[in-house]
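I can't quite decide. Please look over this sequence plus structure tokens:

:::
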Amino acid sequence: MKTLNIKRITALAAGAALLGLGLAFAGPISFQGVPIINSAGQPVVQIVVGSTAQPSDGVAAGNIAAAIGNLAYTTVPVTASVNATQAKSVLKVSVPSASYTISNPQVWLNISSSHAISGAYQFQALIGSVLNRGVLEGQPSSTKTLQSASSNYAYPNKGAGTYNLNTFPMSSPYTDAMNSQVPLSTEPVATNNGGGITFTSFTTGNGDNIMRITNSELPVLLNNAGQYKESEYLWLTGFPVFNQSKTPGSLMLESADGAYQAYFSTPIPEYTTSNTVNKATISLLGENWTILSYNTVNVGSVTSTTASAGGKLSLAASLTPLETVYVGHNITSGPFTVELTDLGQPNSTGASPAALNIYYNGKLTNVTQIWPGYTSKFNVTGHNLYVNVNNTFAGLYAYQKWAKIQLYSDVVNLTSGQTFNKTNDPNWKVILEWTNSTTGTKPNALSSIIIYGTQAQAMNLQQGQSFEFITDPAAYKFTYVGPTLGAGSFDPVTFTTSTVTSDSEYYANYGGKNTTVNEESYIATTGSFTTTNTMLYVNDTAINETAQLLTVKSSIPNAFSGSFGKTSTLVYDLTPYQLAENSQINTLSVNSVVADVNVVITDPYNMINSNTPETIYVDGMPFKFTTNTYSTENSRFFQNVTSLYPSNPIPGLNVYVYTQSTANVMNSVLMATLTSQSPVIFYSTNNKPYNSTTTAVGSSAVTYSQPNQVNTNWVLTPDTPSGVPGTAYQYFNYTIPEYPVPLSTNYQDILSFGIVNSTKGIGANPLFILNYSASTTATHGTANNVTYTSSTAGYNGVSATSTTLPVEQGFITERGSQVVGITPSELSFNLAKSVDEMGFAVATATTATNTVTGYQLCPSASLPGIGIGQSLAACGIQNATIAKVTANVTVASNANYTITGIGNIQATPSVPSAAEPVLLKNLPTSPLVVLDSNANPSSDLILIGSGYVNTLSKALQAAQNITITPTSAPIVQAYGGNRILIAGYYANQTTAAANNFIEQLYAQASA
């Protein structure tokens, strides 16, 4: 049976599977043309031993039969399977970009609406405002408030009237006891955020930068509860703005902070009517506490009942209420059990200490005694227990002995004006407020406990971030959830500069052809012009030469309206010219006078020089200029000028064409002028382009309309730059105003950008660029050339100054519009279709917020792309992340590509071995070894031994004239195509011949 190396088979099978080939491992075996084994693996010969042979011939025949049986094998179909997962992990395909194409690319977005947080109080505030008492759910316009320099506080106009704010029924903790701790805006507004909001002082209005949350908004807060009518309040502070000084820039709540207040409508007296310390039970930060001791405010009698700040309190967090425990009984809370075992001997006042056993999880840990009026602390493996013995009674008998005991989990000491918890809450301080029932007495009743934050200067909440009101115990948290507008709430608007060549656009066409006198007919008739027949001739078809354009596109149909009608695309010609042609004033003979032509230009902005020359074409004739000068062309006569244009249109460039009656003598006869005009808007009527009939494109030229907003006027304003060629100066300014307060025009913010000449000269294409950056000291110089002006604060006679700052890609305005991209030839904005708001949530510390966290920058040189799962907020799409990206990739049939890792593929063959034994058929009836007397003469035969012992060998020798003698060499030879003779004179020679035959047979099989 033939065997092959299984590793070799596996490798071949793997390669064949990749190449689509099949494998076969079988074939027939013959010897010198005599078939030995057929393709089915069956022997087709008989081995013949002579009847009179010696045993050695039988041994030789047996060895040959064994060799043939060993070589009998058949074809074994072998297949190999490759695990796809394993192949993908090791195969690497590299296809150069020139060899493939990508079609149908799609980006799939995860888009969500504003986040709902179950169990929380949610509200919204306008971007660029404050958190204050004007914030009401569903009425965000109340948050757009500003403080003027005169400390008068202005609230906004809500629709048709003034929004009336209800004052708090109490003073805020910030105005009442800690004026020095008012959270003020600390960010430098002029360079960082677009809110335009700042506070430098706190007014007496109790509602500046502060907002109150009560039980009506968050039901877990107490409202007039218990014996002392306790109510809880959360006070929030902060400035919702876009801050681009952070990395990356994002919407955030600047100077975020807050305060917690427990207020007692019925103040808690220091002593009870029995003149004992009032162990009052109160709630604080969601937990029950018992007052252990008081130190009231250190003042004498006061003239009013107004609250005074100061003093100290010792509070214990209650595990159990005050209980009467008899000797032999116990009180239990959680793993702790306290057993009263006895009462000790009374002291001089009759008070007896309580003898106690402390158990933890049923195991005795402490044996102690505590006197009445004292509290002891026990620590068992880090678990604290406070035991307070309030009173004891010894009694006459054991069953009469008892002690009043209360268990606490924690004891804290609060000192007014000091830190609440130096270890866990170093940024929170305490104010204790006391009052008195009548004037002229000492304040000795607790009216309020205030815990306020002092970290506003450093606390800026980004989307998804929270801050907790105290971390130990953690009770409440305040979260900035994110903006409210979804991805479909914006109008993508682009501004693009371009240069168009002949026949693409039309210049301005002012005036019309003189129809009173036909100039050509007059010249033909009279042969000259006269001073009495002066005519104004203007070309009546628009000039179709090179122009510099600004194209504005909106996604909203008919977003723009004006004298041109309505459209979603505006086309501004930034370089229109007015062509006017005058007749010759002097009397000239058409045929007898040769007139020279003088061309004079004015370039007020100094854009023309030897490096950036300008060519003026007069009826196709070129005049080259490098300065403000004139050029003369001799021997050229013009009856009139019908074509006059510059090679490069430049704002402010004026061209004058004169004629001369004598060569090189200027006689100031003006033939034609080409005068630079202010930009115009092109529109189409009956498929023919026209310029706007409005000569200006200022405040009333373009109205921008979209749903849910008051219409605004977009303005393109020409500037008057000055300088030298090669320097960028602003030639035009474009402003986009918005109204960031719903349905109110009292507030307006503005996005604006400059249109600046390229430093490459007047031949640059396009001439104007949009991402210009210049020194802040230069006229109109702003970083990235996009500026933002915050909404004005003026209201009801209160004046304030808006803030103007340079902004970058990703900036978000007060309305919620976004600066998406800034490139040399295109600016792109996402203009909010409605006023965006910043959503906030107040909840318990354990409430899940489930918000999206963080922003990612848009593609840039430093960050070339946005990954799967990353937010698109900085790219102008709110509440969305990249879910997946799909595309069809097609590789050309003749593409050059490489595949690596093939050698690492592991294939599994279909059989464990490629060798398969063959059972020799019918050996009993058709034996492989026979005697010469039983051989089949028609079969292929292997004859063992010479004719001396084998009759068939004798017949073969006679037929082939073969003589075998003692000196003859052993014979291993085929004869006649069907006989193989293996013989020698001696027995050992026949055995050697048989061995030689076997070796040759094996050698052929191996080949």
